[in-house]
């Protein structure tokens, strides 16, 4: 009887401690935990650098709304901005690197150049998100093959775990994130496809190889 009473008291004590902890969790802390759970589901055991990212809290955004050109803000008026980060975008054909902003709203992702919106991707049309298993920050956003889209978006992000987590959570498509090994295909436009190759080397670099492929080291 004493053993049964002790076990019941232990369970009650643990339940009270859990309830106390949950009630003490702030909204900010809860959001962090929710994001980290998604990051774990997508990247754990798949991408290099994941373990090192565990103790790094995700920021709400890397840039403020005031850092965005007023003309762009006017164009996306009515959509609440949720996350902004600087990125490097690679052209789909010549693979030239260009500084851009990735702006994530409640309903769409925008690739922004200064005062221009270069590409808009509605989350409802998002076909997939690809990254490599290596420590690079490359992210490919796959879009539908239609007249509204120029082709898939090739980006390099400094905070790849954070950016991908924010994107797939806002789009509610974490099941569409793929961590690939070796290479991946991306759509250039007009039914054409390109190839991206991932390799390990002494110096990180992204360049167009003699084969015409985009090579990420």
Automatic annotation (TrEMBL):
Pfam families reported in the protein's UniProt record: Myosin_TH1
GO cellular component, one term: myosin complex
PROSITE patterns, per the entry: TH1
InterPro entries per UniProt: Myosin_TH1 (IPR010926)
Domain TH1 intervals: 47-217
A single GO molecular function term of this UniProt record: cytoskeletal motor activity
Name used for this protein in its record: Unconventional myosin-Ih
């Amino acid at each position: 009887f004493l053993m049964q009473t002790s076990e019941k008291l232990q369970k009650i004590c643990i339940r009270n401690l859990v309830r106390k902890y949950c009630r003490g969790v702030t909204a900010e802390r809860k959001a962090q935990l929710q994001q980290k759970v998604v990051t774990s589901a997508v990247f754990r055991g798949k991408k290099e650098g994941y373990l090192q990212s565990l103790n790094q809290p995700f920021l709400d955004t890397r840039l403020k709304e005031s850092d965005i050109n007023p003309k762009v803000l006017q164009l996306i008026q009515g959509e609440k901005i949720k996350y902004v980060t600087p990125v490097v975008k690679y052209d789909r054909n010549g693979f030239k690197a260009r500084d851009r902003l990735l702006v994530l709203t409640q309903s769409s992702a925008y690739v922004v150049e200064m005062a221009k919106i270069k590409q808009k991707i509605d989350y409802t049309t998002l076909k997939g998100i690809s990254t490599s298993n290596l420590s690079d920050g490359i992210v490919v956003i796959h879009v539908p093959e239609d007249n509204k889209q120029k082709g898939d978006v090739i980006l390099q992000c400094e905070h790849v775990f954070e950016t991908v987590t924010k994107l797939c959570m806002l789009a509610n498509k974490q099941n569409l994130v793929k961590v690939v090994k070796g290479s991946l295909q991306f759509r250039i436009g007009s039914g054409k496809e390109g190839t991206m190759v991932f390799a390990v080397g002494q110096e990180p670099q992204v360049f167009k190889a003699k084969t015409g492929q985009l090579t990420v080291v």
